[in-house]
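SEQUENCE AND FOLD
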Amino acid sequence: MKKRKFTVGQHHGRLNVLPRDFTFSSMTPLMLVHCWLMGSVRHDIPALAQLDSKHVLFLKGGNKMRNKMESIMRIVEKMAREKNAWNGKMSDWDYDKGQGERLGLR
């Protein structure tokens, strides 16, 4: 099994799981779900759900943006649970296990 490897960035003298040039970009709701649950190997970004406030302190408005994303994802999770399409174990969200298809991400 291939292990997912990310390059860490350094922000204000501390190692960070986000790349040095990371910014929150505009996303569609579908892109948010994908990035929140699975991240992006191509862009070297872990699942955004794994980030906490210390990871986004270096971004202007980073905590505010992360909190907005988290609020939206609470609604998505509630709706997905109602349809029996939610997997509560974060490490199991990936395309290989069919999670992307269950939420219509393919």
